[in-house]
Amino acid sequence: METGTLFICPTPIGNLEDITLRVLNILKEVDLIAAEDTRHTLRLLNHFEIKKPMTSYHEHNIREKGPHLILQLTEGKSIALVSDAGMPGISDPGEDLIRLAIEEGLEVVGLPGPSAALLALVVSGLPTRRFAFEGFLPSKSTDRKKALDTLKIEQRTLIFYESPHRISGSIEDMIKVLGDRKASLSRELTKHYEETIRGKLSEILLVSNERNLKGEMVLVIDGAEAQEAPEIDVKEELMKLLDKGMTKKEAVKEIVRVHGLPRNQVYEESLKLD
Ligand code: SAM
Predict the structure, then answer these.
(1) 86/10 Cα distance (integer angstroms)
(2) What's the whole-model pTM score?
(3) Best of 8, 13, 23, 185 to mutate for ligand 1, by most ligand atoms within 8 A of CB?
(4) CA 261 to ligand 1 centroid distance, Å
(5) Closest atom of ligand 1 relative to the 87 alpha carbon
(6) For residue 102, what are the domain limits?
(7) Is there a single domain that holds both residue 10 and residue 58?
(8) How does pLDDT run across 170-221, given as a tens digit for each residue?
(9) What tens digit of pLDDT does each residue of 58-77 get?
Protein backbone atom coordinates (compact mmCIF):
# COMPACT_ATOMS: atom_id res chain seq x y z
CA MET A 1 0.00 0.00 0.00
CA GLU A 2 1.27 3.46 -0.82
CA THR A 3 1.84 5.63 2.22
CA GLY A 4 0.65 9.23 2.54
CA THR A 5 2.68 12.41 2.89
CA LEU A 6 2.84 14.76 5.85
CA PHE A 7 2.80 18.37 4.61
CA ILE A 8 3.99 21.05 7.05
CA CYS A 9 1.89 24.09 6.20
CA PRO A 10 2.73 27.53 7.58
CA THR A 11 -0.22 29.90 7.95
CA PRO A 12 -0.39 33.72 8.31
CA ILE A 13 0.73 35.37 11.57
CA GLY A 14 -1.85 38.13 11.13
CA ASN A 15 -2.46 39.13 7.54
CA LEU A 16 -4.43 36.48 5.65
CA GLU A 17 -2.85 37.56 2.37
CA ASP A 18 0.39 35.99 3.58
CA ILE A 19 -0.75 32.43 2.90
CA THR A 20 1.03 31.00 -0.12
CA LEU A 21 -0.76 29.61 -3.17
CA ARG A 22 1.01 26.33 -2.60
CA VAL A 23 -0.23 26.03 0.99
CA LEU A 24 -3.77 26.75 -0.22
CA ASN A 25 -3.48 24.05 -2.88
CA ILE A 26 -2.14 21.51 -0.39
CA LEU A 27 -4.93 22.32 2.08
CA LYS A 28 -7.42 21.66 -0.73
CA GLU A 29 -5.75 18.42 -1.82
CA VAL A 30 -4.95 16.57 1.41
CA ASP A 31 -7.27 14.00 3.03
CA LEU A 32 -7.02 15.51 6.49
CA ILE A 33 -5.85 18.67 8.24
CA ALA A 34 -4.24 18.29 11.68
CA ALA A 35 -4.72 21.66 13.36
CA GLU A 36 -3.57 23.06 16.70
CA ASP A 37 -7.03 24.56 17.23
CA THR A 38 -9.67 23.38 14.79
CA ARG A 39 -12.02 26.33 15.44
CA HIS A 40 -9.20 28.78 14.75
CA THR A 41 -8.19 27.00 11.53
CA LEU A 42 -11.83 26.72 10.46
CA ARG A 43 -11.97 30.53 10.20
CA LEU A 44 -8.95 30.39 7.87
CA LEU A 45 -10.47 27.59 5.78
CA ASN A 46 -13.83 29.39 5.57
CA HIS A 47 -12.10 32.56 4.39
CA PHE A 48 -10.52 30.63 1.51
CA GLU A 49 -13.63 28.48 0.95
CA ILE A 50 -11.82 25.24 1.72
CA LYS A 51 -13.84 22.35 3.09
CA LYS A 52 -11.75 19.57 4.58
CA PRO A 53 -11.98 17.13 7.50
CA MET A 54 -9.97 18.40 10.46
CA THR A 55 -8.59 16.85 13.60
CA SER A 56 -6.93 18.51 16.56
CA TYR A 57 -3.24 18.10 17.27
CA HIS A 58 -2.10 20.24 20.19
CA GLU A 59 0.33 20.16 23.11
CA HIS A 60 -2.13 18.29 25.35
CA ASN A 61 -2.91 15.39 22.99
CA ILE A 62 0.43 14.98 21.20
CA ARG A 63 1.11 11.56 22.79
CA GLU A 64 -2.15 9.89 21.80
CA LYS A 65 -2.73 11.81 18.58
CA GLY A 66 0.76 11.47 17.14
CA PRO A 67 0.69 7.66 16.67
CA HIS A 68 -2.91 7.89 15.42
CA LEU A 69 -1.92 10.37 12.71
CA ILE A 70 1.10 8.23 11.80
CA LEU A 71 -1.22 5.25 11.35
CA GLN A 72 -3.39 7.26 8.98
CA LEU A 73 -0.30 8.28 7.01
CA THR A 74 0.86 4.66 6.75
CA GLU A 75 -2.62 3.75 5.50
CA GLY A 76 -2.14 6.17 2.63
CA LYS A 77 -3.84 9.32 3.86
CA SER A 78 -2.12 12.64 3.20
CA ILE A 79 -2.14 15.07 6.10
CA ALA A 80 -1.52 18.82 6.32
CA LEU A 81 -0.14 19.97 9.65
CA VAL A 82 -1.04 23.55 10.63
CA SER A 83 -0.67 25.55 13.84
CA ASP A 84 -2.61 28.63 14.93
CA ALA A 85 -0.13 30.92 13.21
CA GLY A 86 3.17 30.75 11.44
CA MET A 87 5.42 27.76 11.01
CA PRO A 88 4.29 24.54 12.72
CA GLY A 89 7.07 23.16 14.90
CA ILE A 90 8.45 26.59 15.80
CA SER A 91 7.30 27.11 19.43
CA ASP A 92 4.21 25.23 18.26
CA PRO A 93 3.19 21.57 18.04
CA GLY A 94 4.70 19.71 15.13
CA GLU A 95 8.20 18.69 16.14
CA ASP A 96 7.07 15.33 17.60
CA LEU A 97 4.84 14.40 14.70
CA ILE A 98 7.51 15.28 12.19
CA ARG A 99 10.08 13.16 14.04
CA LEU A 100 7.65 10.22 14.29
CA ALA A 101 6.90 10.42 10.57
CA ILE A 102 10.61 10.48 9.71
CA GLU A 103 11.26 7.51 12.03
CA GLU A 104 8.51 5.57 10.24
CA GLY A 105 10.15 6.34 6.89
CA LEU A 106 7.18 8.42 5.77
CA GLU A 107 7.49 11.31 3.37
CA VAL A 108 7.59 14.73 5.03
CA VAL A 109 7.29 17.83 2.86
CA GLY A 110 7.83 21.28 4.38
CA LEU A 111 6.38 24.35 2.74
CA PRO A 112 7.94 27.81 3.18
CA GLY A 113 5.90 30.59 4.72
CA PRO A 114 5.50 33.08 7.57
CA SER A 115 7.26 32.83 10.90
CA ALA A 116 7.34 35.71 13.38
CA ALA A 117 10.95 35.03 14.41
CA LEU A 118 12.54 35.55 10.99
CA LEU A 119 10.41 38.56 10.19
CA ALA A 120 11.29 40.26 13.49
CA LEU A 121 14.96 39.49 12.90
CA VAL A 122 15.12 41.05 9.46
CA VAL A 123 13.27 44.24 10.46
CA SER A 124 15.36 44.62 13.63
CA GLY A 125 18.35 46.09 11.82
CA LEU A 126 20.60 43.90 13.98
CA PRO A 127 23.14 41.47 12.45
CA THR A 128 21.36 38.69 10.56
CA ARG A 129 24.35 36.69 9.38
CA ARG A 130 24.31 34.50 12.50
CA PHE A 131 21.44 34.27 14.95
CA ALA A 132 20.05 32.05 17.71
CA PHE A 133 16.33 31.51 18.19
CA GLU A 134 15.53 31.01 21.88
CA GLY A 135 11.73 30.80 21.76
CA PHE A 136 10.00 31.60 25.08
CA LEU A 137 12.10 32.24 28.19
CA PRO A 138 10.93 30.66 31.47
CA SER A 139 8.18 32.67 33.17
CA LYS A 140 9.77 32.74 36.65
CA SER A 141 12.41 35.43 37.01
CA THR A 142 14.96 33.17 38.75
CA ASP A 143 14.71 30.52 36.00
CA ARG A 144 14.74 33.22 33.36
CA LYS A 145 17.95 34.74 34.72
CA LYS A 146 19.55 31.28 34.76
CA ALA A 147 18.59 30.77 31.11
CA LEU A 148 19.90 34.21 30.20
CA ASP A 149 23.14 33.51 32.03
CA THR A 150 23.89 30.69 29.58
CA LEU A 151 23.56 33.25 26.76
CA LYS A 152 25.91 35.87 28.22
CA ILE A 153 28.79 35.21 25.82
CA GLU A 154 26.63 34.19 22.85
CA GLN A 155 27.77 36.41 19.98
CA ARG A 156 24.92 35.60 17.64
CA THR A 157 21.87 37.87 17.51
CA LEU A 158 19.26 36.48 19.93
CA ILE A 159 15.55 36.09 19.14
CA PHE A 160 12.91 35.59 21.85
CA TYR A 161 9.15 35.18 21.76
CA GLU A 162 7.40 37.05 24.56
CA SER A 163 3.96 37.72 25.90
CA PRO A 164 2.74 41.23 26.79
CA HIS A 165 2.40 40.55 30.52
CA ARG A 166 5.97 39.31 30.80
CA ILE A 167 7.81 41.65 28.47
CA SER A 168 8.85 44.28 31.04
CA GLY A 169 10.03 41.67 33.56
CA SER A 170 12.01 39.87 30.88
CA ILE A 171 13.68 43.04 29.65
CA GLU A 172 14.60 43.99 33.23
CA ASP A 173 16.25 40.58 33.70
CA MET A 174 18.03 40.88 30.35
CA ILE A 175 19.52 44.24 31.33
CA LYS A 176 20.70 42.73 34.63
CA VAL A 177 22.23 39.61 33.08
CA LEU A 178 23.23 40.59 29.55
CA GLY A 179 23.70 44.34 29.92
CA ASP A 180 21.92 47.21 28.22
CA ARG A 181 22.32 45.97 24.66
CA LYS A 182 20.90 47.18 21.35
CA ALA A 183 17.56 45.50 20.70
CA SER A 184 14.33 45.60 18.73
CA LEU A 185 10.80 44.79 19.80
CA SER A 186 8.35 43.89 17.04
CA ARG A 187 4.70 43.54 17.90
CA GLU A 188 1.59 42.66 15.94
CA LEU A 189 3.67 41.94 12.82
CA THR A 190 1.68 41.99 9.57
CA LYS A 191 -1.38 43.28 11.50
CA HIS A 192 -3.06 46.70 11.59
CA TYR A 193 -1.13 47.98 14.65
CA GLU A 194 2.20 46.49 13.60
CA GLU A 195 5.20 48.34 15.02
CA THR A 196 8.88 47.84 15.68
CA ILE A 197 10.61 49.74 18.47
CA ARG A 198 14.39 49.87 18.18
CA GLY A 199 16.94 51.10 20.71
CA LYS A 200 18.74 50.07 23.87
CA LEU A 201 16.92 47.54 26.07
CA SER A 202 16.45 50.31 28.68
CA GLU A 203 14.76 52.55 26.07
CA ILE A 204 12.44 49.73 24.98
CA LEU A 205 11.65 49.03 28.65
CA LEU A 206 10.65 52.66 29.11
CA VAL A 207 8.24 52.48 26.15
CA SER A 208 6.89 49.14 27.33
CA ASN A 209 6.19 50.51 30.83
CA GLU A 210 4.75 53.81 29.63
CA ARG A 211 2.47 52.40 26.96
CA ASN A 212 1.66 49.02 28.48
CA LEU A 213 2.25 47.35 25.11
CA LYS A 214 -0.23 44.68 24.05
CA GLY A 215 -0.33 42.00 21.38
CA GLU A 216 2.04 39.34 20.16
CA MET A 217 5.69 40.26 20.31
CA VAL A 218 9.20 39.21 19.40
CA LEU A 219 12.30 40.64 21.03
CA VAL A 220 15.58 40.62 19.11
CA ILE A 221 18.81 41.42 20.95
CA ASP A 222 22.34 42.10 19.82
CA GLY A 223 24.79 39.29 20.57
CA ALA A 224 27.71 39.67 22.98
CA GLU A 225 30.78 41.59 21.89
CA ALA A 226 33.58 39.37 20.59
CA GLN A 227 35.99 38.70 23.45
CA GLU A 228 39.39 40.29 22.87
CA ALA A 229 42.06 37.58 22.69
CA PRO A 230 44.09 37.92 25.89
CA GLU A 231 47.62 39.15 25.31
CA ILE A 232 50.11 36.43 26.18
CA ASP A 233 53.86 36.38 26.40
CA VAL A 234 54.61 33.58 23.91
CA LYS A 235 58.23 33.17 25.04
CA GLU A 236 57.20 32.82 28.67
CA GLU A 237 54.43 30.33 27.82
CA LEU A 238 56.87 28.27 25.75
CA MET A 239 59.39 28.12 28.58
CA LYS A 240 56.72 27.08 31.07
CA LEU A 241 55.72 24.16 28.85
CA LEU A 242 59.34 23.16 28.18
CA ASP A 243 59.95 23.16 31.92
CA LYS A 244 57.04 20.76 32.24
CA GLY A 245 58.89 18.37 29.94
CA MET A 246 57.24 19.04 26.61
CA THR A 247 59.29 19.05 23.44
CA LYS A 248 59.44 22.34 21.50
CA LYS A 249 57.16 20.91 18.87
CA GLU A 250 54.60 19.88 21.48
CA ALA A 251 54.80 23.24 23.22
CA VAL A 252 54.19 25.15 19.97
CA LYS A 253 51.22 22.93 19.16
CA GLU A 254 49.74 23.42 22.64
CA ILE A 255 50.03 27.23 22.52
CA VAL A 256 48.44 27.37 19.08
CA ARG A 257 45.61 25.15 20.34
CA VAL A 258 44.95 26.99 23.60
CA HIS A 259 45.41 30.59 22.48
CA GLY A 260 44.44 30.34 18.82
CA LEU A 261 47.64 32.11 17.69
CA PRO A 262 49.11 31.65 14.19
CA ARG A 263 51.42 28.63 14.16
CA ASN A 264 54.21 30.54 12.37
CA GLN A 265 54.31 33.23 15.04
CA VAL A 266 54.71 30.70 17.85
CA TYR A 267 57.22 28.62 15.87
CA GLU A 268 59.40 31.71 15.16
CA GLU A 269 59.38 32.50 18.85
CA SER A 270 60.43 28.93 19.69
CA LEU A 271 63.48 29.26 17.39
CA LYS A 272 64.70 32.23 19.41
CA LEU A 273 64.96 30.00 22.47
CA ASP A 274 68.00 28.12 21.17
N1 SAM B 1 4.80 29.09 15.02
C2 SAM B 1 4.77 30.50 15.18
C3 SAM B 1 5.79 31.14 14.24
O4 SAM B 1 6.33 30.43 13.39
O5 SAM B 1 6.06 32.33 14.32
C6 SAM B 1 5.01 30.91 16.62
C7 SAM B 1 3.97 30.42 17.56
S8 SAM B 1 4.23 30.88 19.23
C9 SAM B 1 3.04 29.91 20.07
C10 SAM B 1 3.44 32.42 19.32
C11 SAM B 1 4.45 33.56 19.54
O12 SAM B 1 4.97 33.97 18.28
C13 SAM B 1 3.82 34.82 20.11
O14 SAM B 1 3.74 34.78 21.53
C15 SAM B 1 4.77 35.88 19.65
O16 SAM B 1 5.92 35.90 20.46
C17 SAM B 1 5.15 35.36 18.25
N18 SAM B 1 4.23 35.90 17.24
C19 SAM B 1 3.29 35.24 16.55
N20 SAM B 1 2.64 36.08 15.71
C21 SAM B 1 3.22 37.29 15.87
C22 SAM B 1 3.00 38.57 15.29
N23 SAM B 1 2.06 38.77 14.37
N24 SAM B 1 3.79 39.60 15.69
C25 SAM B 1 4.75 39.41 16.61
N26 SAM B 1 4.99 38.23 17.20
C27 SAM B 1 4.24 37.19 16.83
Answers:
(1) 5
(2) 0.84
(3) 13
(4) 43
(5) 4
(6) 5-110
(7) yes
(8) 999 999 999 999 999 999 999 999 999 999 999 999 999 999 999 999 999 9
(9) 999 999 999 999 999 999 99
